[in-house]
Specification:
globular; 11 strands; Lipocalin; alpha+beta; two-stranded antiparallel sheet
Length: 247
């Protein structure tokens, strides 16, 4: 009996990921902290875990002028009841780094050599490959989520992503094929995680564009299926959001 128990415990330990001393297990379900309904549920004094708002993108003057004009048109269109379309209207997720905004809960799975992040919305998935050199741009195909590698240092996960399609934009900010997304994942309390995101793209930006998202762990939440089926919304030829009316 004792021998059988020892064997069972040994096998169970082999199934668990072996984390290095400076790693923190991020496995679990997470929701954005300090925004929406979650902001109303914060206990007194816990606003210290809410990061500052995202700054305006430090675009070069010629691009900043165009971006501001477009954002103004977008606001006017929304106010007029004819909003500009987004990828969501076409049942397509946000890609990187937009998926990290976590409009719906997300799940992190931490396994040996890899961290997988799954967004409930549109079931977007990205993978961070640990302790590997970053791939050469010529060796990867541009996509929505790019190629991410990462490493742990002093309890902080550092990740770098390259290979994002220029049409996959954060807040309509243009970027080149050589854009890099740098991230740090750190726990700031027992159940609050901060992810600092920094977009590096000298072709369009005067300096890195950096902001932070906060997430709260949701130990009892179960991820739900999200399938964009029978979508009535679509993008018309002018880029506006439209709705198909029943005949």
């Amino acid at each position: 009996m004792i021998r059988s128990l020892c064997i069972a415990l040994a096998l169970a330990s082999l199934a668990l990921p072996a984390f290095a001393k400076d790693e923190i297990d991020l496995t679990g379900r997470w929701q954005r902290y300090g925004v929406g309904a979650n902001a109303a549920n914060m206990a007194a004094g816990e606003d210290k875990y809410t990061p500052p708002p995202r700054p305006e993108p430090p675009l070069k003057p010629e691009y900043l002028k165009e971006w501001k004009a477009y954002e103004q048109k977008k606001k006017e269109a929304a106010a007029a009841g004819t909003p500009f379309a987004t990828t969501w209207n076409d049942c397509i997720g946000s890609g990187m780094p937009g998926m990290m905004a976590a409009a719906f809960p997300m799940e992190i799975l931490q396994t040996k050599g890899q961290i997988t992040i799954i967004q409930e919305a549109f079931m977007e998935i990205r993978r961070i490959y640990l302790d590997q050199p970053q791939a050469a741009m010529d060796d990867i195909e541009l996509g929505y989520y790019g190629h991410s590698v990462g490493h742990w240092k002093d309890g902080v996960l550092h990740a770098e992503t390259i290979g994002i399609k220029p049409k996959v934009q954060e807040q309509d900010v243009p970027h080149s094929e050589d854009m890099k997304i740098e991230e740090t994942f750190r726990m700031v309390s027992d159940d609050i995680m901060w992810v600092e995101i920094s977009i590096v793209d000298p072709a369009y930006l005067t300096k890195p564009w950096t902001w932070t998202y906060a997430y709260q762990k949701m130990p009892d939440y179960q991820m739900q299926e999200y399938v964009c089926e029978g979508n009535r919304e679509y993008t018309d030829e002018d880029g506006y959001q439209r709705i198909r009316l029943p005949e």
